[in-house]
Amino acid sequence: MPIVKYPRATEPLWHEWDRKAQKCGLRHTVYSVNGDQYTGEWLDNLKHGKGIQVWKRDGAIYSGDWKFGKRDGYGSYSILDPVTKEYKKVYTGWWKNNKKCGYGVTFYPSAERYEGEWSGGLRSGWGRMYYWDGSVYEGQWLEDRPGGQGMLRLPNENRYEGGWKDGKKHGPGKFFYLDKGQLFEGIWAADIPKCGILMDFGRVEAPAPTQYPIPKV
């Protein structure tokens, strides 16, 4: 007499059907009610693995890694230029819990660019910022602003090297006036030099030195 196997009474049959219906592992394309579109890998009905998300409202697109429904890993985020109708890259780098985290490059309007570390979606750690006027800041960042030790090089090659706090010169630092052949070394507070010493530095090579040298003390 053949043996007949029946489903376990402890688990309803619809549980098995539900597991088979879930998106898991394979690539699927899903359209949201608001018109957003995702094409990629899934795990337990969550975006997980490699995938591409397109937001209909602003035409933005993310292509990269996902983890349990959030951007996590390496990926790029781009927006649609309303004039050229082409995608412009905004950020390429690492993500964690849907925010920029780790090393990445961000492209801002007016041709500004940041290359460096992120934490919780903010510039934090070491980084280099290229500003629209030609200035370049390279050094430490804290909560999206220069904080710690860093160097700011101006378009005329003059530069500041020293401490920063809340995006302003703060603490011991040196300002090289290479156009005049002078160096100021002192203490700053909220971008204002409070005390220090001004001395000649590279005066012979300077393009526009002061009329008289600074007397040595």
UniProtKB/TrEMBL annotation:
It is found in: Cytoplasmic vesicle, Secretory vesicle, Acrosome. It comes from the Eukaryota. InterPro entries: MORN, MORN3. GO terms for cellular component: acrosomal vesicle. Its main location: cytoplasm. Keywords: Cytoplasmic vesicle, Repeat. Assembles a suppression complex (suppresome) by tethering SIRT1 and MDM2 to regulate composite modifications of p53/TP53. Confers both deacetylation-mediated functional inactivation, by SIRT1, and ubiquitination-dependent degradation, by MDM2, of p53/TP53, promoting a proliferative and cell survival behaviors. May play a role in the regulation of spermatogenesis. This is MORN repeat-containing protein 3. It comes from Alca torda (Razorbill). The gene is Morn3.
